[in-house]
Amino acid sequence: MSPESPAPTEPPTRTTPAAPSTPAARAPRTLSTAEVRREELVEAAISVVAERGIHGTPTTDLARAAGISQAYLFRLFPSKELLAVAVVERMHERIYERFAAAAREARLAGAPVLPAMGASYSQLLEDRDLLLVQLHAHAAAPSVEAIREANRAGFARLVELVQRESDAGPEEIGRFFARGMLLNVLAALDAGAVDADWARVLSGADPELNC
Predict the structure, then answer these.
(1) Is the pLDDT of residue 30 over 80?
(2) Spatial CB neighbours of 199, under 8 Å, sequence gap ≥ 6
(3) Residue 160 sits in which domain range?
(4) 1 part of a folded domain
(5) Based on the structure, what is the number of domains in the chain?
(6) pTM of the predicted protein model
(7) Per the domain annotation, does 67 fall within a domain?
(8) What is the 3-state secondary structure (H, E, C) of 23-86?
(9) Digit-coded pLDDT (tens) for 135-189
(10) 183 contact partners, CB below 8 Å, separation of at least 6
């Protein structure tokens, strides 16, 4: 090749389009400040409602328990009724979670599910706030439609869960829930501390449920 000859050029390199990148895994959703405060308010309200009842608890007390102003309370829940419904829903959710956990543990252990759920409820009643919120919610249900509907929805979920997990029939499940309601009353009366025939009879009812 002579010096005058142009130097050969290399063919242009073809660029292969980059493959679309795989979307990164979504980070866990972060609650907004309002959502966090709403959760905190509901948790704080449980103890206050347990002590004073749904009708007897002023919003000033609920706001004070959560460490917020009354005005901010109404930004989170536009009415006291909506906050009361959230408290009732949270109460039902705690029972649901306890029943579901008891069913899982019983299945892993090869144990009967329904008695395990009953035993878990007896333990749950040691939370006096949860017990009292239930009693207040039932008392308010006849006069407050939203509370009544929240209770109905809560029981519907619980019954569906017990049916699915235990395979028990309607009569047995009815007795299971009837026993739970009796346990609520006995716990409210502190019947375990009473040395009387009526307390012993009612506390020992339906022993096969192990409640």
Answers:
(1) no
(2) 186, 191, 192
(3) 81-209
(4) no
(5) 1
(6) 0.79
(7) no
(8) CCCCCCCCCCHHHHHHHHHHHHHHHHHHHHCCCCCCHHHHHHHHCCCHHHHHHHCCCHHHHHHH
(9) 999 999 999 999 999 999 999 999 999 999 998 999 999 999 999 999 999 999 9
(10) 121, 122, 125, 211
